[in-house]
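Researcher: Here's my situation. A collaborator sent me these components and asked whether they could plausibly form a single complex. I don't have experimental data yet, so a predicted model of the whole assembly would be a useful starting point for our discussion.
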Amino acid sequence: MNGMGIVNGSTSLLLVEDNPIDVRLIRYALQQEQTWKTEITVAEDGEKAINLLLAIAASSPQSARPDFVILDLNLPRRDGTEVLQTIRSMKELQDLPVAIVSSSPMDVIRGKVSTANVSANCYFTKPMDVDSFLALGKELHCCYQKSRLEKPLAASL
Amino acid sequence: LDFLKNLFSTDFMPHVYCLRDPGLVKLHYLSDGIIAASYFLIPVALFLLIRRRRDLVFPWMFALFGVFILGCGFTHVLAIVTLWHPVYVLDGVVKALTALASIGTAIMLFRLLPAAMNLPNSQQHLAAIVESSEDAVISEDLRGNVTSWNKGAQKMFGYAADEVLGKSIELVAAPVKTGEIAEIVRRIKTGDGVYQLETKRCRKDGREISVSLTASPMRDTKGKIVGISKIVRDITDRKQAEKTLVQVNEELRNSEERFRTLADFVPDMLWTTDATGKATYVSRRYQAYAGRRLQEFLDYGWSKIIHPHDQERVDQVWSESVQTGKPYEIEYRLKRADGVYRWYVARGVPIREANGEIIQWLGSSTDIEELKRTERALRRSNEELEQFAYAAAHDLQEPLRNVANSVGMLSRLFRDSLDERAAEWIDASIKGAQRMQAMVKDLLTYSRIVNDGQPPSVSEANAEEAARTALQNLHSVLTDSQALVQSGQLPSVPVQETHLVQLFQNLIGNALKYRQPDVPPVVRVSAVSTGGEWQFAVADNGIGFDPAYADRIFKVFKRLHNRDEYPGNGIGLAVCARIVAHYGGRIWAEGKPGEGATFRFTLPAHQA
């Protein structure tokens, strides 16, 4: 919990992922991004992620609010779409940039999200090899940058 | 009064005075009396004759005779009277009247003479009848020798009169009825006859004819039997007609019996109705199934055992068939004797007369309960299997990715501290995992073709647009291979567009992949309409294939080539086959090694 928030110019990041190997790969890929300092908090299932987000929304000031969420869809207990719905349904969190990284094919990912009637900022399919994971790290960085630029001016003040 | 006075005037002398002799007077009045009496009796006899014999020829002539004779009678009465009373005036007047009647009768008689002369005598009359008769009229003596032979007989038996007169009638009886003649002669001799005996005779030309024969004894004036008269009628045509009728009836009964036997024997329940759709018969099996008697099925009785939910649909389809004459086919539930409903498929065809008019309907009802149950079970098991394939493929991906990525990290992080052999093993592991991953992904694609959670599409897809999309997806391969793809006019079909795109993409992609080295690939896409469906073709000028494997290539993961020669998992054609099968179509391939390949598939032309 202490790792949350902007510390020394690094991005506070919530990774919702149940597969420990994927957690390590994403962590490794993000470490390779020299220009992007990240502080990663991991939630291993959907329920933990939702509880954490609800607690953050309730606290004031929201010092623990993450800057970016990387979200898997197939999660134990509560599904990734429910996590996304929680984020989008709360005033305090609804503008939070979210990237979905799932092992499902892209059309299935988009189908699931649109069925849940919500939307994420970016969508990725989990890569099959290490090199692609490194590429994913770059793409996530890019996604975060873009979402910051798209953010309404008022919110960044 | 004066006239009457004159009439009875007696100013003359009576005859008596002239005759003088009393004997002579007596002779006169007795003779005149008898004549007068006779003349009065004759008209009575004539009158009775006219009254009784209505068939008299020229009856008025007899009447005229009566009047004339009556007149004569009166003149003789007056002759007696004038013996003693001289009423000569009256006598003269009566004579004059009688003279008139006499002369009239004489004139009429002469005028009648020619006509009367021409009246045939009875002999001639009979002869004429006999001659003109269609029947054979024959007379024989008591030994059976022919004594007369009319034209009818000549026509019937083919013998002229002079050929048979004096000869035995056995001539026409033999050889079919030898012995019958003797029997007839025997009966005639006893005074008996033969009445309308149906028998056979033989013509001169050898043809056999059926006849009806009546024979009666001929007697002389003393009543002694002297011969046989026969009337023979040709009944060959009638017999033939009767025989045909019997045969037709027999055949009808036989075919009816055969049908009934068959109807009771076959496992289906059979029925017939009249042209208006009213049941006329149901087989025993049907009766036993429903536990009802035939009577309860007749007319529309059969509809009582149809499931209430199916009733309206059956009525509709049946009445439409009856009205249009189109074959009837419908599935419905029928109540068994124990109250259980089972699924049946009923089929009916109209039976038409030569002029095309429907005379009845013949139908069968087949138990499809097991089929229905199997169908339901199969559908369920198919759904479960698809679910399973999807889940398995999906859940298998994660651990595989873990293996591939873990080994990948191992290689990446410890590359420098591993020797060459370790690096090779690591590479092999990664390749294996990646290949399996690709296959699992393909399997996932394959299982998702018809199980993507989407409701079945009801819209039409334009095949030309789908082919265009497929070509866009294949853009880089097309450019690299310098391929030429030609397309004819393609129709719209009731198929999900993504499926159509995938079909074209896989087939055209296949054609490009298996191209001849150093020959730019040419691919032709076309479609023809064949009775309710479209047959598409994707033909190429590639390497072709051994026709022995024509079926194998559509199976999942089946490949004809080494992976090093042509990459791929062998899923593309399997996906095509599954898509086509989903719409009830067929897919097949034609080709020879080195001579290109043509893939054909069919899709419905209209919404099923």
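Model: Some features of this prediction you could bring to your collaborator: Strands of chain A lie at 11-16, 38-43, 68-71, 98-102, 122-125. Residues 35 and 141 of chain A are 9 Å apart (CA to CA).
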